Amino acid sequence: MITQTQQRWIDVFFKPVPGHSVAVMRIAMGALMLFESINYGVFHCLDCRFRGTAYLFKYQHFEWAVLPPGRGLEALFLVMGVSAIGVMLGYRYRLSILVLTASVAWYFLLDATEYLNHYYLALLFLSILCVIPANRVWSMDAKKYPCSPYIGNWSRIWLIVQLEIVLIWAGLVKLNPDWLQLEPLRLWMTSYSADAGPLMQWITQDPGIAFGAYGAIALHLIGAPLLLFKKTRFPVFCVYLFFHMVNATVFNIGIFPFMTAAATTLIFEPDWPVNLLARFRRGMATSRERCESALIRYTEERRARNLMNPLIITFVIAWLVVQALLPTRPLWHEGPVVWNEAGHKFSWRMKLRDKRGRIRFLVRNNLQKSLRVVEPGDYLTRRQVRKMSCQPDLIWQFAQFLEAKELEAANNVGAGKDNISVTASALCSLNTRKAVPLIKAVDLTTLDQSTPRDQWVTPFTEPL
Description:
- Strand 3 (355-365) and strand 4 form a beta hairpin.
- The protein is an alpha+beta fold.
- The N and C termini lie far apart (60 Å).
- The protein has helices at residues 4-13, 20-43, 46-51, 72-89, 93-110, 117-131, 154-172, 177-180, 185-189, 198-203, 206-226, 230-250, 256-264, 272-280, 292-304, 309-325, 337-340, 382-388, 392-409; strands at residues 16-18, 150-152, 355-365, 370-374, 420-430, 436-437.
């Protein structure tokens, strides 16, 4: 028996709303993923990025994600592009969105040095789109739902709260000493030419940099909640659009600004696209005036699915709770995450650090009494070396790879794991600080991924 409280949740989640704003999100995600498939599949050197390396770094528990054989990577981007078109058009939507999500996930999991927050966010949005009925309107599949533009409000709620979690965490993580002292934003902005226009000159000076740094915090921590209120929604949305466009112009952050801008439109009334079009097309009825019988039909369908309603609510809330808690992982580890990287990924810690380092490894074979210096560039691409040099988890992974290579080479003399040790000599500079050692002089092959970072990463003491 459903309690009164449960009924209130059901009424909020399953209130019938026009599906046009969700359809816009579907079309935008399809278009952005089509762009990415062309951008990476055609204009990036995949041999340089993936096939030109002896090792691909893996996310924990996703070691099974391997590089497709032959020209499989090109085929993967082709599949991504074709399925993205299917998502945009709403053609065989369920199949198209599942294939698109799977292909994006495969690419995302190939190499941890390729981690980008915008790909992670795209995966989250695509995963949600796999579940919600985003093809009820403005899709080739819509003929299956004649005159039925309504969907459950839970579809919008899910996407909106996911976006709010991202925006609020993006503000919270900026409440750290370096960001409040304008680093690394000052480092990046002052690299722009002083010959630029007056606006850029002001932006690249401390007053402009402070406005950007503190304005970003205020926009995320104050602006994101204000998006939920009707009176403040539109002006805050305009500020967000300006913020996203500045980011897209100044920083090379790919599709992130466009994706978040598209997702932010979900906070408006669910029929805003139709009502906006009605302003430009005289005589076109708004969605509230169209197909009223569909509302009755949707309500009847919802009653028929009453048994599923609590399950949907439970799943959506569980998803959002997990997403809200994942960025707290750095709090579980000793030391600052900006240095030891423990919990950095999947935590919306965007634009918080500028790390520059150099590294080499020492491989010792105690049986043969040999010591070999290994330059990572002998095995990895330049991008991989640059990314790995200041990320302890990647350094640990590469040490395991070097141990395996040494065992393979020494197999004919019977060397075992106990005879091989790998240490790393890494110097890292964080946010303009002097470069200091990152890894302690320990045998990395004796550690596992669960070993606390403070046991093998040096303490963070260098002042800004």
